[in-house]
Amino acid sequence: MTNDQYSIVLILIGVFVFFLWGRWRYDVVAFSALMISVIAGVITPESAFDGFSHPAVITVAAVLVISAGLAVSGVIDRIAHIVVPPLKSLFLQISVMSSFSAILSAMMNNVAALALLMPATIDSARKVKRSPALLLMPLSFGSILGGLITLIGTPPNIVIAHYRETVAGEPFSMFDFSPVGLVVAIVGVFFLSTIGWRLLPKDRQAKSATDELFDIDDYAAECIVIEKSDAIGKSIKEIDEIADSCDVRIAGLIRGNKRTLRLTRSRIIAEKDILILKAGPKELDTFAHKLGLEIKGGDLDKSIFSNDDVTLQEAVVSADSRVIGRKIGEIRLKSRSALNLMGVSRQGENIKNRLHQLIFQAGDVLLLQGDNDSMSKSMDRLGLLPLAERGFNMGKRRHAGIAILLLAGAIGAAATGLTSLTVALAIAALGMVLFSIIPLRDLYNTIDWPVIVLVGSMIPIGGALETTGTTDLIAEGILQVSEGYSVFFVLALLFIVTMTLSDLMNNVATAVMMAPIAVSMANTLSVNSDSFLMAVAVSSSCAFLTPIGHKNNALIMGPGGYKFGDYWRMGLPLEIIITLVALPMIVWVWPL
Fold it and tell me: How many domains does the chain have?
């Protein structure tokens, strides 16, 4: 091995380790690896940022904008209410929801598809008194399977399609993925509906992970500011600091006969005010003693925390949320976002105490109190997704038809050869802005920038694998291990290795790294490289064993109350079935 080969291999090992560790976000890891590659001399400074101008990056960004346009137009909401009914038959309910999520994911980003369908799914489960855990994992897996059907369904397909252009002169088209992806999706959804849900632990099937989060009646309290109380003359901001130390949440204030839940931080407490609190008995007693408050008797319920202007809302922390790894004080949840954290559910366990010390994780379900008018924008800014049905976006309903026509027009223009798919999707994304489906001020918020940075950073690293001859070296090593076996066995080995990597690290990074290795193996064996690229496309998107392999898996962890080990119970049999179905289909559609 040359020095350059040693360098790129060590860099890739580092990428794998840091992805697996999860301490740094994947885009930071990828960009750091890019910079180290430049310093090590395996990537020239002139080509270091070529990945950010790559068609795959533009395509991914355009798909994200189009997906957001379809979401805000209200078309998905309306369809979801029709196809996600509260069915008594669990088989039918999982079949309908998983199938619809698969179909939706074929036409838009699969993370967006899951985020749109999750509230309706949870609501339908509650109406028939069924644990959402029975539905959410099949829903997530169904959306991942649906992404296999088209080029725009998942970023790895986009990466593979454009890589094919560099080696064969022409990219994969929109529906080149469909023959294999559609069969895999159908078989996968059938498994999820009939057998998959039965493999979940019994306690996960028996209860809802988030129902208890709203059960805060025992934590509702009122305290009277009596004469000579230390609270008199203090601002809400000052009282909040004391409340945090006692693990008490200030939810509102009653002055005279007026109840106010939207409290300004500068409001001054006066004698005879009544503080509306969310606190446990011990914490309440400590807080009242510190400030010289009188605990008011009488039974209260959670309705005291909301009114026509202020509401309680469940939200899940997305995989890219800015609150991950931080405490409430660090993100200034109340002062910056006007949100009051009332409770947290993590992997099925409800946390109502010591919230000020809690470090947020992806998949956490938060119970928030906030203004009806600003709740949605505040959650969007923080990367929190609502778990309650939002209703139709009435202001955008008239744009639903335009949003669908823009997407259909882009697909039609690319399919007929009028223009490339990248250009067609970029025009459709522009149309979403020009027709005011997506306001210009919100345009850049619709793009998942960590994914863009990841793709832009990994493409040059993938190129360095080739230019240093490392892909040929790795391909030769894999072929030596499988020496004496058939080409089909080699293809199967590539498929399994790629799928395993995708379970442990980001699927886009897996596709970028494995694509050149796959082509090198195919060229060494003098067989069709398309079949090897398709194997990488399918296997890199099939991450079902862990919650870290795909954003969708992380997104459902809190709402479903899943443990880390729950995923392989349903995911391992599914991956085995996909392998048995996909490989014969690949060699049939793309002969070796």
Answer: 4
Higher pLDDT, 230 or 257: 230
221 close to 277: Cβ distance less than 8 angstroms: yes
Count of CB atoms within 10 A of residue 137's CB? 30
Q: Could you tell me which of 32, 35, 40, 33 has the C-alpha nearest to residue 11?
A: 33
Q: Are residues 263 and 225 in the same domain?
A: yes
> What pLDDT score does 445 carry?
83
For 555-570, write each residue's pLDDT tens digit. 898 888 888 888 999 9
Contacts of 501 (CB under 8 A, 6+ apart): 16, 510, 513, 514, 540
Burial (CB < 10 A; 0-12, 13-18, 19+), residue 23, is exposed
Same domain, 17 and 100: yes
Q: How many CB atoms lie within 10 A of CB 91?
A: 11
3-class secondary structure, 5: helix
Instruction: Single out the residue in 371, 405, 439 at which a domain terminates.
Output: 439
Could you tell me if 331 and 379 lie in one domain? Answer: yes
> What is the band of 301 on the pLDDT scale with cuts at 50, 70, 90?
confident
User: Is the pLDDT reported for residue 496 higher than 90?
Assistant: yes
Residues 574 and 466 in one domain: yes
If we measure between CA atoms, which residue out of 2, 165, 145, 19 comes closest to residue 506? 19
What integer best gives the mean pLDDT of the chain?
87
Residue 394 has pLDDT above 60, yes or no: no
Q: How many C-beta atoms surround the C-beta of residue 523 within 10 A?
A: 15
**Helix residue ranges, H only, 482-506:** 487-504
Q: pLDDT-derived band of residue 345, with 50, 70 and 90 as boundaries?
A: confident
Q: At a CB cut-off of 8 Å and minimum separation 6, what does 220 contact?
A: 276, 277, 278, 300, 301, 302, 304, 305
User: Looking at the structure, do residues 450 and 482 belong to the same domain, yes or no?
Assistant: yes
Q: Are 20 and 134 in the same domain?
A: yes
Same domain, 374 and 459: no
Which H/E stretch holds residue 260? strand 258-260
Instruction: Identify the helix (H) or strand (E) that includes residue 385.
Output: strand 384-386
- Residue 118 is encoded by which pair of tokens? 């999750």
Burial of 441 from C-beta contacts in 10 A (0-12 / 13-18 / 19+): exposed
Mean pLDDT over 419-439 rounds to: 92
pLDDT at 396 > cutoff 60: no
Under 8 Å between Cβ of 378 and 338: yes
How far apart CA 81 and CA 121 sit, in angstroms, is: 10
Burial per residue of 547-576, b for 16 or more beta-carbon CB atoms within 10 angstroms, e otherwise: bbbbbbbbbbbbbbbbbeebbbbbbeebbe
Q: Mean of the pLDDT values across residues 582-592? A: 95
What is this structure's pTM?
0.84
pLDDT at 211: 62
Please check whether residues 419 and 523 belong to one and the same domain: no
CB atoms within 10 A of CB 318: 22
Q: Which of 352, 322, 319, 350 is nearest to 337 (CA)?
A: 322
The residue among 273, 305, 337 that closes a domain is: 305
Query: Which residue segment(s) compose the domain that 359 sits in?
Result: 310-386
SS (H, E, C) 40-91: HCCCCHHHCCHHHHCHHHHHHHHHHHHHHHHHHCCHHHHHHHHHCCCCCCHH
Confidence of residue 539 (pLDDT cuts 50, 70, 90): very high
Report the CATH number at residue 243: 3.30.70.1450
With 0-12 / 13-18 / 19 or more C-beta atoms within 10 angstroms meaning exposed / middle / buried, residue 361 is middle
